[in-house]
Amino acid sequence: MITECPVTRPEGERVLLGHGAGGRLTAELLEGTVLPAFGGRAGPLEDAALLPGSGDLVMTTDGFVVSPLFFPGGDIGSLAVHGTVNDLAMRGAEPLALSVALIVEEGLELGLLEAVLRSLGEAARGVGVPVITGDTKVVGRGAADRLFITTTGIGRRLPGLSPSAAGARPGDAVLLSGPIGLHGTAVLSTREGLGFEADIASDTRPLHRLVAALAPLGDRLRVLRDPTRGGLAAALNEVARDSGVVIDVDERAVPVPPPVAAACDLLGLDPLHVANEGCMTVFVAPDAADAALAALRSLPEGTGAVRVGDVLPADGHPGRVVLRTAVGARRVIDMPLGEQLPRIC
Amino acid sequence: MITECPVTRPEGERVLLGHGAGGRLTAELLEGTVLPAFGGRAGPLEDAALLPGSGDLVMTTDGFVVSPLFFPGGDIGSLAVHGTVNDLAMRGAEPLALSVALIVEEGLELGLLEAVLRSLGEAARGVGVPVITGDTKVVGRGAADRLFITTTGIGRRLPGLSPSAAGARPGDAVLLSGPIGLHGTAVLSTREGLGFEADIASDTRPLHRLVAALAPLGDRLRVLRDPTRGGLAAALNEVARDSGVVIDVDERAVPVPPPVAAACDLLGLDPLHVANEGCMTVFVAPDAADAALAALRSLPEGTGAVRVGDVLPADGHPGRVVLRTAVGARRVIDMPLGEQLPRIC
């Protein structure tokens, strides 16, 4: 009878906060530990996976551990719905159903739990997706920090769409559906009492309607990616890596709201590394750029859509993201290493 | 901008450990807080839900918070697979795909995480179900107890099967696929250092093959239920409630291994309330009882299958479970109130 844990790693190696930050450490954990255990192959890591033998159905799962539970613009309940709906949308899928699993710390105010669940329910109804099943576990005081929510979503791909992180091609236009940096700075400002809460609200929102508006582009829509953990820098690096291309971004074109810039300045953060929960990068064929921008701007959640860059051939440097700065210099934007903003989603 | 949590409940009310125990408090939380927030209707609460618009696909989700992570007979990784596969199986479904979401405490040994994931991967391969997507979140030291896993499963119902907690009818035979009490007492004994670890191992195992063996029964297979949290008492009470019947159980027929009985004696637990992770109750039409027992006993995981009782008409007491004791007395088996065994799964 095995009761001892069969450990093979040197004892000193431990999980760091950065392993959950969506950057290089996360990729290492995934490639070095998680995928080998599951017999997974290396390949593009998508936001949602095709369900085997089920045609156009996709599945995604996400744990939400954001602290505090309520922040300007949202809360863990609405975030859990939007994050999962968006992961489906990034595969070109409309949401069909959600499941919700709660891990609750003993002693959490029931009224608070109720408020979170009400917000979650409202967000789901707003998207038009039913919560069809769930689970609740309670752990003792001190064994969890108040409330964690894991949401899993099933969606159906829109006909003709098959965006993939591996789909970018030289010449493609790189669009952004709205300003960056709002979610991460809103949460951090609230948590640390920095006083930006009056000026900054999370951008948490569902993106599936924007994706539906892009559906007429068909296979000229190459990549959809929402820059959550690790921010725009991580999202673009993943696409550059999985597509084997260079992505060239014009710094002046990237919309950073002034309060976000001020908060990042104070905190020593790069806005490109800050998590977002309501915008996405869209890669389209060159001749589809104008139509895509018009489609995005036709909806309230896409009024701020802009073109921020272009896809270039690899030229010996596949996987590279380059920023053209305001003064004309060019600098490489690396994958963020680890954790700048723990428990941001 | 809402940053305050809009709480409606009196401040004193808090989540108790018992709210996660699978008994009456869990039902109260579900019916009073969770379902209203999601706009859910009262009705049979099944282990897995039908995916809307997707024919015969079902979905289930489960959080695993067991402590310790390794216990006699299993670990949190294999348990996470078996528990989810079994929830699908209880709806008559074979597993198609799993997702795995990890919440990890900063500082967890990487080798331990690897061992858990390896076990999870092996369990999934054993069942023949792929892990197709996942998520990893890391929270700071003290914000979680080492490792929580939330597994979501998608399955396809076997043709002709539609077992439901509401499907029991007077006259049906009540079967049990194997002995009860092993999982809960194994975990608790390890955790509390009671010294039963040498005699008791968790029964954690997948039940989908047993269900496939029962498939030829078609609609004569009425109910499948695995008695996890809350034990056999909770499972039978749920079926009695959702089917509006009385369930009559013969105490002498319920298999309780002697070490389980001894451990329960020491701990002051009722074996009927102790969680299981590898047996199930099966309700079948009277003329199918022998065929069902033969089918169960044809597989290693069902060699201990027995008939433990019968379904009786409600007679003014729908929802009641009655135990005929060894000395011929009859006592009502209530739904367990709350938590006897926190973090057992």
TrEMBL record, chains A, B:
NCBIfam families: hypE. Residues 169-315 form the PurM-like C-terminal domain. This is Hydrogenase expression/formation protein HypE. CDD domains: HypE. One of its GO terms (biological process) is protein maturation. Residues 46-156 form the PurM-like N-terminal domain. It holds the Pfam family AIRS_C. SUPFAM superfamilies: PurM C-terminal domain-like (SSF56042), PurM N-terminal domain-like (SSF55326). InterPro entries: HypE (IPR011854), PurM-like_C_dom (IPR010918), PurM-like_C_sf (IPR036676), PurM-like_N (IPR016188), PurM-like_N_sf (IPR036921). The gene is hypE.
